[in-house]
Amino acid sequence: MAECPERPDDDFEILLRETVTKAVISGLENEHSWNDDIIVRLMNYEARAQQERLSSQTLQVILSGRRILGRS
Q: Among 11, 33, 34, 58, which is disulfide-ready with 54 (CB 3.0 to 4.6 Å)?
């Protein structure tokens, strides 16, 4: 079975998903006031992901992160 060629931005999306995941885990482990900063950052990532038409997987990671932190 032939593999699908990678899109040039796949590396970027992988890095973005990893960054979001690490930020959410950090927010859960350290319930500090800066969690609001994480949520604002996730909202910005969401808007940018939609604007740039990033993959649904990337958008779902961002939305799940907001939901986990309690701000969907």
A: 58
